[in-house]
Structure to design on (376 residues):
């Protein structure tokens, strides 16, 4: 674990177990088999866990050739952190980012007409080739070249291919858990790949499936599978324990006060206590990334191994009913993950209580006021 100085500057910390992460990677590689690559997704600062630290841990695996981020800025940050492997930028690249992305050797998603020529122009200026993956829009309608645009894209590519390295093609399903819809979109993807092949354009790496789809079927695996959430936590339904949660968010009790039934807690006097209880104040709030909806439903946190009810949330502090826990000021409170004694509160369970974007939505929301602490 990092030295205590990192915690003295923060009121809470996200403990990231890199050994657990490596175990999850080994599990996924075993599921994929020898012929399918794993593309780890580190977007959103590796879902809040710290992209550079996660990328360094992934460098232990020679099987991993490519990692993915969402924005060019994320890829550039990883380059500045010394990450040398291939990095795919899955999202749109802004015109003023193109030259920097090419110079840094980022693999750019070619997701709109004219971008191939813009990338080629930058590559020619820099005396290099721009690495690209063709992004094909099969129904999400976010970014990507649509099927009817492929002839125009092929013509554009042919005009500037000497300055481009076409290393792959991919799509992203609009509803990964709906396999019938995935099948329809996969058919579009295969048709586009066939069109490219007929024109003599070779695609070395084809990928369509991400975590949720892959957990249901290997039908769409092709040459590679992109895994984001599955690196860090198991599926929200039908979890089998093969993937363990990597991150635990912990803070500390700063105040304890006996309160009476009928007392009003927090701004606006909207929370009325329904019993006599001991209320703890904890030094984090929505300014740290705590989802306020969790306090509105009285979601659980762990105190002394027991589940205790969140009462209210302010920007910098929250209040918890800690009756009968025997806790003291300075004791830890775990909002999700494992506490220091190994008791577990799944982030997937907590996120489902407020229909959040799975547990990775909770980790991604954590601000830089939360220390990231790494342990092996």
């Amino acid at each position: 674990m990092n030295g205590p100085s990192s915690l003295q500057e923060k009121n809470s910390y996200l403990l990231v177990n890199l050994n657990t992460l490596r175990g999850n990677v080994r599990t996924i590689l075993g599921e994929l088999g020898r012929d399918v690559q794993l593309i780890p997704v580190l977007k959103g600062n590796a879902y809040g866990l710290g992209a550079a630290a996660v990328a360094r841990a992934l460098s232990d695996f020679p099987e991993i050739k490519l990692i993915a981020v969402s924005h060019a800025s994320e890829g550039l940050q990883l380059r500045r952190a010394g990450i040398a492997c291939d990095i795919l930028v899955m999202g749109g690249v802004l015109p003023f980012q193109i030259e920097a992305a090419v110079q840094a050797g980022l693999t750019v998603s070619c997701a709109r007409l004219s971008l191939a020529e813009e990338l080629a122009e930058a590559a020619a200026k820099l005396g290099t080739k721009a690495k690209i993956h063709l992004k094909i829009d099969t129904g999400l309608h976010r970014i990507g070249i649509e099927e009817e645009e492929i002839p125009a894209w092929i013509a554009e590519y042919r005009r500037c291919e000497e300055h481009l390295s076409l290393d792959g093609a991919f799509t992203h399903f609009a509803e990964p858990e709906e396999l019938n819809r995935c099948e329809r979109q996969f058919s579009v993807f295969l048709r586009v790949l066939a069109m490219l092949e007929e024109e003599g354009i070779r695609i070395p790496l084809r990928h369509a499936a991400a975590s949720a789809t892959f957990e249901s079927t290997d039908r769409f695996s092709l040459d590679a599978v992109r895994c984001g959430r599955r690196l860090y936590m198991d599926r929200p339904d039908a979890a089998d324990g093969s993937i363990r949660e990597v991150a635990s968010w912990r803070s500390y009790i700063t105040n304890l006060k006996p309160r009476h039934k009928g007392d009003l807690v927090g701004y606006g006097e909207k929370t009325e206590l329904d019993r006599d209880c001991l209320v703890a104040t904890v030094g984090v709030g929505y300014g740290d990334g705590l989802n306020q909806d969790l306090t509105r439903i009285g979601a659980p946190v762990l105190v002394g191994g027991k589940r205790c009810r969140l009462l209210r949330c302010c920007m910098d502090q929250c209040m918890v009913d800690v009756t009968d826990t025997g806790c003291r000021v300075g004791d830890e409170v775990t909002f999700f993950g494992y506490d220091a004694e190994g008791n577990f509160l799944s982030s997937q369970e907590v996120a489902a209580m407020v229909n959040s974007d799975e547990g990775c939505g909770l980790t991604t929301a954590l601000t830089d006021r939360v220390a990231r602490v790494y342990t092996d």
Q: What stands out?
A: The radius of gyration is 24 Å. The first strand starts at residue 12 and ends at 17. The CA atoms of residues 10 and 371 lie 6 Å apart. The first helix runs from residue 5 to 8.
